[in-house]
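A note from the maintainers: we've had questions about how concatenated examples are separated. There is no special marker in the raw files; a new sequence line simply starts the next protein. For clarity in this README we add a label.
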Amino acid sequence: MSTDDKNRAIAAAILPLVGGAGNISSVAHCMTRLRLGLRDRSLVRDEALKALPSVMGVVEDDTYQIVLGPGTVARVTPAFEALVAEGAAEAPARSAEELADKGAALRAARKAKNATPFKLFLRRVADIFVPLIPALIGCGIIAGLNGLLVNLGLLPGITPALAAVASGFMALIAVFVGFNTAKEFGGTPILGGAVAAIIVFAGVAKVEVFGQALSPGQGGVLGALGAAVLAVYVERWCRRWVPESLDVLVTPTLTVLVSGLVTLYGLMFVAGEVSRSIGGFADWLLAHAGAGAGFLLGGLFLPLVMLGLHQALIPIHTTLIEQQGYTVLLPILAMAGAGQVGAAMAVYLRLPRNGSLRRTIRSALPAGFLGVGEPLIYGVSLPLGRPFVTACVGGAFGGGFVGLFSMLGDKVGSTAIGPSGWALFPLLDGDQGLGTTLAIYAGGLLVGYLAGFTATYFWGLGRELIEEFDVDTEAVPGSPPVTAGTGAAGPGSPGRDPEPDPEPAKL
């Protein structure tokens, strides 16, 4: 079977289990999950879906999220979208309308119950910055490569060009933030970008505020975010009061003028002070309480990942990168993934007879070593319960290790955001040389692996849990394999081959 056929087969197995094409209102994906908007949640067959060999778990949030793993999800999503389009074209209009009405009512009730203003705000901020991550990663790796060449004295004729390639995006990141912010808040994106561009314009150095000349880039991404939000509200006011015949001329002019002047004479100064405070607090925290702060941050990060709220930290990381050239928080937070890997290894050894779970761990560990922890979270530790807590313990000890060295004056930072685990090595930077930085980060990973493994091996799996799951279900005739949900899939579950297949079946 070709790769395209395999991806289409996975998509075809998933589609009927989520209610068919008529039940899908939107399709998107992130690094590991297929994110679906559903019209009628009750049509989803959760247990059968979790039993599919390619599905590592499911997460329900504003969208229904199916964990397929890195790489796989990017290839399956286009095939799934094509099947949805084909099915929608064939579905009766009346049936689709009825599903849409019922699904809208269910979504509204669920959102009213679960969507708190704070959580919605954090998600909105994350949606502004997440599209920027690929550029941050690419430019960060190029910057790290360039720094290595400079330190080694190699290719002196090429390093200035590499520096320009790596720095161009960061020099204009405020414009992209402004564009995405206006888009997210319901304004005209280009107007948000235009107002945010004022922040990075070299001519602002001629503008004095409170007796001080402004600096290009002052306020950074926080200033750009505030300026774009202001532009959205000014634009809305204009749309409401400006006559339609004058709207095309007056609305963009007033939006840029009013928002731009407020940005120059207020927002840039305020945002600049806030940005400096963030950088100063991060430095103070790690210098005076690095071990404790690292322990706390490393231990709490997995729950944030589980809730999807970790992306709200992106503006803080970006601010630190703008100011210092790297973020000192990301290497500490990355230790949570190390604790997760260690916990999974312990589960693997403690449940030697559970072949399906061990296959799950083997399939998810490579991604875990590269910093993608969701397959292990939703396929192993979280369903088991206590191993999720002991994985957090491993992350805490790894974070405390890295934080301790920050107290001793050896900062470890990342020049970009996005990767973690082993994938973060090319992005590492610090104030004590590359060798020292790499050694401290590697030591933190090792501590996280060992602490997560030890805590899980001795305390993460109680006697009852071992008795329940340390069984060879595949050796018992008619006994279903354990899957990622609370139920089990029988031999007739959709998408399962009649013969044993080394798929990542989930607990």
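[label: protein 2]
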Amino acid sequence: MGVLFKLPLFVVLMAIGSAAMLVPAVHALALDLHRTAQPFFYGAVLFGVLTALIGLATYDRPVTNVARNQLMTLIAAFAVLPLMLAVPMREAIGTVSFFDAYFEMVSSITTTGASLFDPPSQVVSPIHLWRALVGWMGGFLILLAAVAVLAPLALGGFEVVRPTNKSSNADSVIRRADPSERILRYTLQLFPIYAGATLVLWVALVVAGTGPFLGLCLAMSTLATSGITPSGGLNPWQVGIYAELLIFIFLFMAVSRQVFTNEAQQGFWRRLGHDREVRMTLLIVSLLPMVLFLRHWAGAFDAEEQGDVMAAIRAFWGALFTVLSFLTTTGFASHDWEAARAWSGLPTPGLVLAGLAITGGGVATTAGGVKLLRVYALYKHGTREMGRLVHPNSIGRAGKLGREVRREGAFIAWIFFMLFALTIAVVILGLTATGLDFEAATAFAISAITTTGPLADVALEEVAYTDLGATAKSILMAAMVLGRLETLAIVAMFNPDFWRS
């Protein structure tokens, strides 16, 4: 393991991607799909040899600027690595262009989950396994990058809680630290939790009645918040209420950094109970589903269906599950969510789901969006300013860290939110220039920036990803990478000091 991490990080990612190609190859062989297995097996051999040659040429090469090297590696991982991952997929399917296969891989590795396969049954199960596996690996890469790369740089949401007297030293700390040692340490810390939770959920889903293959895809998609499924959603004939309940429980892993970071080693439940992100999630999950349920109830009243108790219960559960799913940017829509629409006769509140996706999940999790901690900082700053209108000379409570969150943290969070909104506006403008109407462009833009691909499928009824042209797909792919890396990380690259050795 130590020898492996003396290689550049991108070469390590290439090695992992090459080895992962053997998984769908073995699955295809088990199904007697030799034509599908061959491209993945040959791809593993070809890219394995290529990775070995690049590794020999770059082994133990000194890095002059650690921060620059790691940020550039992340960009390459989400934008360049999918070129390699798309090759066996294109050859295995045979009926799609390489550009569309590249779109699928960018969507998967960024945990967006947008798919051009409509209906999903047009491709065999090893292809869906490959999509889910790439999304699962991308989810772990995001976790590792958050704690090992972005946290020392005070990016990715950590800038909200980092004391101001330490943020100025973040770059010097990461420059002096051994990047290989830090990445190895966090990999050994995070991967057992990530893989163990996936295994537990997989076994639980199989016990709950889902098949082994579907259960594995759902488990990987839930932990990675990618929303990738073989059926394009939660098929009611394959995913029952017990399976949805299990997924609902594990989705909470995407709302708090306490689950994965070393802060969870001591006093885990006490820390979790006091975590600001968890409290915000519980507030949203408690109030918003009730509002959506009352909306459906009012619609059912007009349709004279309000006396159907079971339909009402299913409507509430559908709202509860879907709210948490879109808050974590997973994008699963409960079957009972569709049943609630049939019960009330009302359309999908796409604006509400888009708002949840924009809010996003927790810092240092696989979720996308603005992130709950930034929203919390803006909320605390707003309440403090309203309090000062009544008591101008009052002193805020919550200690030094609380004051920094309300002041400097809220200031940086507001900058990020403005950059986030500006990015959405630019993407919408680009998509409308390709011929999409404003509503469709908004849904696709928010889906890509928040890495919640299924949002467009749920919110739109007449337009799908398959209807987009090459230019629109290119814009969405750029938005997926930008949304996954976050705008502040990209802006940091424009700092002149960033390019100095």
